[in-house]
Each structure stands twice: as C-alpha cells, then as structure tokens.
Amino acid sequence: MSTSLPRAHELGLIGCHVCGLVCRDTNIEHAACPRCGGALHRRKPNSCARTWALLIAAFILYIPANVLPIMRTVSLGDVDDNTILSGVVELWVKGSPDLAVIVFTASIVVPMMKFLVLGTLLMSVHRGTNWARTQRAKLYRLVEFIGYWSMLDVFVVSLLTALVQFGFFSAVEPLPGVVYFGLTVVLTMLASMSFDPRLIWDCKDEDD
Amino acid sequence: MTLPSSSSARAQTASTPDLLICEHCDTVYRRRTLVRGDVARCVRCHAVLERHQRIGLNAMLALVATVAVVFVQANVWPIITLGFNGEQIHARLWGIILMMWQEHSQVVAVLAAATLFFFPLCRMLALGWLLTYARRGRRAPGFRPLMVMLYYIRPWTMSEVFVLGVLVSIVKAQLYFDVKPDAGAFAYAALALLITVFSGIDIRQLWDKIPEQAT
Predict the structure, then answer these.
(1) Across the interface, which of A34, A75, A159 has its CB nearest the CB of B10?
(2) β-bridge mates for residue B90, sequence order
(3) pTM confidence score
(4) pLDDT of residue A25
(5) Which of A25, A34, A85, B91 could pair covalently with A162 via S-S, beta carbons 3.0-4.6 A apart?
C-alpha cells in the first residue's frame, strides 16, 4: 500500500459528513460546514465509546429477543408461542426451506455478524493494529449495507397479526420478544453508524 | 498538491470544491470528470468515491413522480387478502400499524410507521420539491435543511425489507389459511425496484449542481 496517498488531516482538510464538502481545518472548537451548516469534525466524536455503548445495549436486548417468544398463534384453542428460532424451524419443516434460510440469515446471522464484526473492528482500533485493513474496511461496509434487513421478522409478525384475527378460532398476537428484537435492530444500526471507519486507517501508516 | 488560495474573506472555513475526500478512510483526491459507466473507487480502501450520474434532473423528477404514484397505490390497496369461511380480511399498511399499536407493541407500530410510511413520504416530498426548482437551476426554499434531512433519513427507509416480509408472511399464513397477495403487494414490489434504482443516485450532487447565488 502506498503511503503517498495524502490523507485529509495531513493536508489540514476536513470532509463534511453531511454534504461531502472539503473544508479547511481551522482548529476552531465548533466549526460548521459553510455549505450545509453541519458540525465539522476530523473524526466522528467519541466514536469508539458510542459504538461500544450502543453495541452492548443491543446485545443485552438481543438476549430477550431470542429467548422470549415473538408471536402467539391461537388456533382452535391451541396456543402456540413462537420464538425467532422456532419460527425458522417451522418454516423449514412445513413450508419452504429456502425462505427459512432467508429468515434465518436476516434474524440470526446478520445480527450476530454485526456484533462480531463491530466488536472486532472496535478492538482492532483500540489495539491500533495494521492487520488486514482493507478487509476490515470491507467488512464495515458490508455490515452497514445489510444491517436493516434484520427488520424482516418484525414486519412478518406485524403482517400476520393484522391478517389473522378471528377471535378464539384463530388469531396471531405479537409478544414482547418482537419489541426487543425491533429495538436490537435499531440499536445495531445506530452502532454501525456511530463507528468511524477512518479509525481503521489512523494507526501508524506503515505498509501492511 | 496545490490548494486554491484561501484569501477570501471566509477565513473560518474556506472550502475547496474540486477536491474529494473518501468518507471511509479520509484519503484526499482531485475530482475527475467521469464518463458513462465510470465508478471512482478509493485506492486505499476500495470504497466507492463517486459514480457517473447518468440520470439527469428531469429524469430524477420523473422517477420521483413515479415513486409517488406507486407509493399511494401501495398504501391504499390491500397488501394481502385472507379468505376464511367466505369472509375476506384485507391487510393494508395502516391497518397493520394500528393493529400493532392496539396489541401492545407500540414500539413496533412506531418503527413500522416511520420506516415504511413517514420517512419514505418525507424523502419523496422533499426530493420532489427540491427537483422542481433544481431543473430550473434554482435552489428551492428550504434547500439546506431539506438536503440535511434527506441525508439523515436515508438509512431509515425499509420498504424493500417489507416486500420480503410480505413474501414470508404469505408462505407462513398459507400453512393454515387461504391467502393471496393483493394489488398492494405488487405495488410494494414495484416500489422496491424503484428504490433500488434510486440508491444509485447521489443526491449530494445537487449541492454542486445548483450554486448558492442562484437562490
């Protein structure tokens, strides 16, 4: 990797987060972008602390989201509570395994991957390592890109609730698990937004 | 690298519009004109810096108008219909949101209302407003706050995810009931396609394309 590529802070420049304008770094405390008025900072403020906080909060909520049932199906007096995982199993056994794979990916693989990837990124930034920087940057972009697909299960529960409602014959009700799950998704999205990928490249600029 | 002189009165933050900074690794580049199909990538971290924007302002406005039509259809028409003992139950977006509110999942109701209705609506209206003025080379009233708002709500529109949710719900409900996708489901599928087209468009170009003096 060539070190000849100039970086903004070496040239005394700041890129505005909001509108992308290249501004001169004036070292003023609360500098604002002349074009869009957004606050200018070299790196997202308190990026690591915020990301850790949001990630840990998301992880704590992810436990009830998986343990508690997300949906109750009542059919002719037969009450059946589904967790995220049992919903996937039901889909696999009774219906279509391909959709089961999609739901499993969106509800289990994607959130787990976000915890692992963001955790790894944060720890590697703390240690200031040069290890696999391009790959880590790619992982971050992947996590940002796929993050919101986890909302899938929340929408499925909402749709089924609205659709199936015949009093005691059969009905679908949302259970608290789905609320925890929705909050987990929102918090992981906020966590990945508050992480600053530039930190990956900030450690001593030697070749890999 | 020579920078334009900062002799202007704006001593605070003199800006340099012909430069480009990679948002992912902070590398500075000189902006180059891209031709059709070009994608500028960062040499250091391989993130996309800029794409050639082949859709002009007029075409963008037409696209927003199309999205508006499809969005109304997706919200008015039922999405899924369930037949039970000769009775038919239709699920519409707002029916779903209100039902979740009543069923003690207010958080989910608010999330669904925001990501499936309010944020897409705001995005669409704001873009339509900005582009109506932009195609005449002018900045619309409220240009700055609207552009900033568009930047912040962009990650929070989830209509594409909802389409997949409709598909999964139909398959799940079909285990026990007679369910059919309704017109609204197809409108949502069309909306998801249009949103995908839109995701390739960089709205930020409006900052450069319409200079401030022309308010």
Answers:
(1) A34
(2) B81
(3) 0.89
(4) 83
(5) B91
- Domains in chain A, start-ordered, CATH in brackets? 1-42 (no CATH), 46-201 (1.20.140)
Q: What is the ipTM of this complex?
A: 0.88
Domain boundaries, chain B: 1-52, 57-214
Is the CB of B105 less than 8 angstroms away from the CB of A178? yes
Q: Cβ neighbours of residue B145 under 8 Å, at least 6 residues apart?
A: none
Q: Which residues, including other chains, have CB under 8 Å from residue B11's CB and lie 6 or more apart?
A: A26
DSSP character string of A85-135: HHHHHHHHHHS-HHHHHHHHIIIIIHHHHHHHHHHHHHHHHHHT--TTHHH
Residue A50 Cα to chain centre, angstroms: 13
Q: Flag if B207 and A36 touch (Cβ within 8 Å).
A: yes
- Give me the pLDDT at residue B17, please: 64
Give the residue from chain A lying closest to B108, CA to CA. A179
Torsion sign across C-alpha atoms B151, B152, B153, B154: positive
Between strands A78-82 and A71-75, the pairing is antiparallel
Q: What length does chain A have? A: 208
pLDDT band at B215 (very low <50, low <70, confident <90, very high): very low
